[in-house]
Amino acid sequence: MVGYRGEGFSGMAEQPGRRTVLGELRRALEVVLRREVELDAAGRTDAGVHALGQYVSLPLKGSECQLSGRRMHASLVALTPDDLSVRALYRAEVGFSARFDATSRHYRYRIACGAARPVMAWDHAWWLRSQPRLDVAAMDRAARCLVGEHDFASFCKASSAQLIRHDGRSTCRNVQMVRVSQDNEAGEPLVTVEVGGNAFLHNMVRIVVGSLVEVGSGRRDVSWVRAALDACDRRAAGPTAPARGLCLEGVDYPAGVLLPWD
Question: Are residues 135 and 75 both part of a single domain?
């Protein structure tokens, strides 16, 4: 399990000539294991998106299974940069995939309102400086229609939705929960949007947040989100919220699949 501050990365997936989370992890693991590795991630976060509970898997070979988890953890911490944290190591059965064995993923988006620049939340919240406050109750009501299995094409990057359809795949996803609340973190008031589901489309959480902010600011009414969902058209929904406010908080797996590697 890893965490990272997304500002310095060009996303999760490796890209030629760019600094990415998987690229940094691969380099560290290849030093420790002294061989090339192939990595699989639970979620492909975009550039600027943060994570506290991202999972990455790789198959071990031969005697590697006998390595000390504590020593490997210490080595990986020493070999990775300050904006990437190897938080824990786990073992799993042969064939485990961090991506395909995940049952749900949980995201949190943070928003700071008002003219005062956020201090502690500066690098991980969307600052709405011209918006003194958001109607959190209206946002929460509007979000309720998103829970359940729906076609979320309206909340997917248009080019990605087109590619998905061209490949004969579905833009339907099962959202298990959406909650909007007023919170206080490190002494600063923040609006937080929590979203959990089995899987997500490209930019889906950020478009959901951008749409809910339209409601919270009074520019749209509560029923508009339902209409946007039903339209199955990216143009019907709100703007894409900035990446910096989004954090992958955690990923769920079936009980007993992951065992601590000591």
Answer: no
